[in-house]
Amino acid sequence: MSPRDDLHLDPELIGLLALGESPGTPDELAAAQRHLALCGQCSSEVDELAAVTRQVRQVSGGAEPMVAPPAHVWDSVLAEVDAQAAPTADVVVLAARRRVSWAATAAAACVGLVVGGGAMYLATSPQRATTPPAAVVASASLAPLPGSTASGNVEVVSTASGPRVQVDVTGLAPVDGYYEVWLLDRNGQKLVALGALDGSARGSFAMPQGIAMTDYPVVDVSLQAPNGDPSHSHHSLVRGTLPT
Q1: What is the mean pLDDT of residues 187-208?
Q2: In the prediction, which pLDDT does 15 show?
Q3: Which of 117, 134, 152, 212 gives 142 a disulfide partner, CB atoms 3.0 to 4.6 angstroms apart?
């Protein structure tokens, strides 16, 4: 790609120079730079397009690499701006098409920068993806039972992998054992073990498959001895009932 032999540089060459590219051979680049030093119109167009490019790069996040837009984007840009160059006289047509070509180059460059910046933004930002936050389905307070000074709360949240039961208890003393979370039916006759609280007395447990909150709305936290017995110890510390 080389400078044109007539009065001005080729519009595509102007666009590449404005984007900071070094098109053509070293001799062609040197010839283009000499022309810019003498031609105010071409120099002004390079400066204007460079300013547009800087603004788009700032919007798209700075240093992301450019990604070429799909072919149909280029076709739409060129068709739109070419429609503005209605032929009236030879001189007018030449001038109009020069400005149209320059505008097309600028628009296409901006599209490339925005597409590239947006793609890089999505590729490097997995936490900005489309996964929605967990929604709270139900919640309740966990009140202390006789002989206990602990308290807490429980939430059932809906996630992409299914409902989860999140428990947070305060006032539990360090013990030689562990604190287990249970789901009970309203009569306290049936129960399902969810798992043990961690060292900070918190836990997030998947709702067991086939178990519905409406059938097991009572949340219970018990103190279990480290004796290998998986059954309930009958030593409950806090309890609450989820609304159903």
Answers
A1: 94
A2: 79
A3: 152
Three-state SS at 106 = helix
The domains of the chain are located at 11-127, 135-241
CATH topology of domain 135-241: Immunoglobulin-like (2.60.40)
Provide the pLDDT confidence category of residue 67 given band limits of 50, 70 and 90: low
Closest CA to 230 of 175, 197, 193, 184: 193
Give dist(CA 81, CA 103) in Å, integer: 7
Backbone φ and ψ of 150, nearest 5°: -80, 160
Q: How confident is the model at residue 63 (pLDDT cuts 50, 70, 90)?
A: very low
For the entire predicted model, the pTM comes to 0.48
Element counts in the chain: helices (H) and strands (E)? 5, 8
β-pair partners for 218: 184, 241
CB 178 within 8 A of CB 225: no
Please state, in angstroms and rounded to a whole number, the distance separating the CA atoms of residues 32 and 3: 6
Which residues, in sequence order, are CB contacts of 128 under 8 Å at separation 6+?
121, 122
Strand ranges, E, within the chain? 135-144, 151-159, 162-170, 178-184, 191-196, 202-206, 218-224, 236-241
Contact at 8 Å (CB) between 202 and 179?
A: no
Q: 89 burial class (0-12, 13-18, 19+ CB within 10 angstroms)?
A: exposed
